């Protein structure tokens, strides 16, 4: 294990992240809200800490192995979440404890969208912008951005990329070189962010709100600049724009690359991909179910209003964004429970969404069907195919392994919350919301997380990390074989 080389890289990445403090400091200066000092102090601390980590190891340039890649990714997210809490700790408005500051920082960076802040619209503009920007940076994974920069610094990036994006198709690259892959991903990500900003602005948002909400929409984060979230704007057009961009962001970004990579834009790749088709089917089905029940229970008398509310809420919760227009927990009980469970599926692999990912749930269902067929015909040989290609058993074993590890982490986190004194419904929904990087839950955490104990917040912070790193990347560090040479 190249410990000194790892420390050098983490130092470089912390210094790179310190640049993120400058932009909200500029925003604070423009609006003269008094938050600029906290960001500049945080910037100085980040640069200093990164330099102290990097300088003694500056000559330690060695090729990364897979184990080093996993450790760097985990360290990076842990350290980044910690230094990202500095502005919240140093600022006077909001006046937050250390625990709350860490919770808000990790929630933003992991695109969970769970908040401990009440009275969000009263915060300084610099803090508001910083919260949204944390989600935007975390959306595609700062590691992917760093991979495009690290080769210039003499550090290979393939191991980082594989550790950051685990899954059944993690080794499939869109371009021959990993740095080029990272750049392509970010070009697409930036284009979608600008497009979403313009759409929100034309729909009636102020430019500041449009930028902030575009950040959290494309990142599928869910942070808003208002306590009422999207409900503050009371606009069906804004709701629709948000839902459409959430769907776009919930699709595998390699499909976006395939669609625009050529002389003409083509949409056939979306319909040829089985995961994407399943994703569309899930979104349409959830919306129709919500509309039907909302009208049947007379929650909304107008079919248009019911469709508007059902569309944004079902897409927002199922893609793990967590935007709300109304308190969906107050809908007929079947709907909030259905939507919370839909967040287990989440977005597609290679998207900014959380959850198990559609491809894994799809493969689990195919595997279940195969086992049912084997019960009827024990000697028959059945192959599971994806896009007319037979999948090796190694892929299916990895999916089952991920599911079992995910379930284990879920149970342990839920038991930890119950042990801290939380009621069962709140504990269940809070773990769902944080492990799936969703945000809002049910019960005591339906609106915010400020009322739960500090111990519960730390448990949920760990759940956020497990969810963002898709369990295996973090869990592998707890295995003895990982530390053996």
Q: Nutshell version of this structure?
A:
The protein has 485 residues and is mostly helical. The protein is 63% helix and 1% strand.
Secondary-structure map:
Elements: H1 3-18, H2 22-31, H3 36-54, H4 66-83, H5 86-90, H6 98-109, H7 125-140, H8 142-149, H9 158-164, H10 178-202, H11 207-218, H12 236-249, H13 253-260, H14 268-272, H15 274-296, H16 303-318, H17 334-342, H18 358-376, E1 385-386, E2 389-390, H19 393-419, H20 424-435, H21 454-468, H22 472-475, H23 480-483
Antiparallel strand pairs: 1-2
Helix pairs in contact: 1-3, 1-4, 2-3, 2-7, 4-6, 4-9, 6-7, 6-21, 7-8, 7-11, 8-10, 10-11, 10-12, 12-16, 15-16, 16-17, 18-19, 19-20, 19-21, 20-21
Structural descriptors:
485 residues, mainly alpha
* Approximate helicity band: 55-70%
Distance between the termini: 7 Å
Instruction: Sketch the topology as an H/E string, one letter per element.
Output: HHHHHHHHHHHHHHHHHHEEHHHHH
Q: Report the portion of residues in β strands.
A: under 5%
Please give a structural write-up.
It contains 23 helices and 2 strands. Helix 15 crosses helix 16 (303-318) and helix 19 (393-419) runs antiparallel to helix 21 (454-468). Strand 1 and strand 2 form a beta hairpin. The chain has helices at 3-18, 22-31, 36-54, 66-83, 86-90, 98-109, 125-140, 142-149, 158-164, 178-202, 207-218, 236-249, 253-260, 268-272, 274-296, 303-318, 334-342, 358-376, 393-419, 424-435, 454-468, 472-475, 480-483; strands at 385-386, 389-390. With 485 residues, it is mostly helical. The longest helix has 27 residues, at 393-419. The termini are close together. The radius of gyration is 22 Å and the shape is globular.
């Amino acid at each position: 294990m190249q410990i000194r080389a790892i420390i050098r890289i983490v130092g470089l990445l912390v210094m790179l992240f310190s640049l993120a403090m400058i932009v909200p400091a500029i925003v604070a200066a423009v609006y003269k809200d008094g938050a600029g000092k906290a960001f500049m102090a945080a910037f100085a601390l980040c640069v200093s800490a990164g330099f102290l980590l990097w300088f003694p190891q500056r000559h330690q340039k060695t090729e990364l192995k897979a184990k080093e890649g996993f450790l760097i990714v985990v360290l990076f997210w842990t350290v980044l979440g910690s230094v990202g809490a500095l502005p919240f700790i140093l600022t006077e408005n909001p006046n937050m404890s250390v625990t709350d500051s860490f919770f808000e920082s990790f929630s933003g960076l992991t695109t969970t969208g769970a908040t401990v802040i009440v009275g969000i619209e009263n915060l300084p503009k610099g803090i508001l912008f910083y919260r949204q920007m944390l989600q935007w940076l975390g959306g595609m994974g700062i590691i992917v951005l760093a991979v495009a920069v690290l080769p210039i610094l003499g550090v290979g990036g393939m191991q980082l990329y594989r550790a950051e994006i685990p899954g059944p198709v993690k080794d499939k690259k869109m371009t021959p070189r990993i740095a080029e892959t990272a750049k392509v991903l970010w070009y697409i990500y930036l284009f979608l962010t600008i497009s979403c900003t313009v759409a929100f602005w034309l729909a009636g948002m102020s430019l500041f709100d449009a930028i902030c909400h575009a950040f959290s929409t494309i990142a599928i984060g869910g942070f808003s600049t208002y306590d009422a979230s999207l409900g503050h704007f009371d606009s069906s057009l804004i709701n629709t724009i948000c839902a459409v961009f959430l769907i776009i962001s919930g699709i595998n970004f390699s499909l976006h690359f395939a669609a625009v990579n050529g002389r003409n834009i083509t949409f056939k790749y979306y319909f040829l991909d089985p995961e994407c088709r399943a994703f569309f089917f899930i979104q349409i089905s959830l919306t129709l179910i919500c509309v039907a029940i909302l009208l049947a229970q007379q929650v909304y008398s107008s079919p248009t209003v019911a469709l508007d509310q059902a569309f944004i809420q079902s897409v927002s919760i199922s893609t793990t964004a967590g935007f709300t227009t109304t308190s969906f927990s107050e809908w007929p009980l079947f709907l909030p429970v259905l939507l919370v469970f839909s967040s287990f599926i989440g977005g597609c692999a290679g998207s900014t969404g959380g959850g198990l990912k559609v491809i894994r749930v799809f493969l689990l269902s195919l595997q279940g069907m195969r086992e049912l067929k084997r019960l009827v015909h024990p000697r028959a040989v059945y192959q599971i195919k994806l896009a007319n290609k037979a999948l090796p058993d190694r892929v299916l074993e990895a999916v089952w392994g991920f599911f079992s590890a995910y379930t284990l982490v879920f149970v342990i986190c839920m038991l930890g919350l119950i042990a801290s004194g939380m009621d069962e419904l709140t504990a269940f929904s809070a773990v769902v919301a944080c492990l799936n990087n969703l945000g809002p839950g049910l019960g005591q955490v339906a609106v915010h997380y400020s009322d739960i104990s500090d111990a519960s917040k730390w448990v949920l912070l760990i759940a956020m990390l497990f969810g963002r790193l898709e369990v295996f990347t973090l869990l592998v560090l707890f295995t003895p074989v990982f530390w053996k040479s």
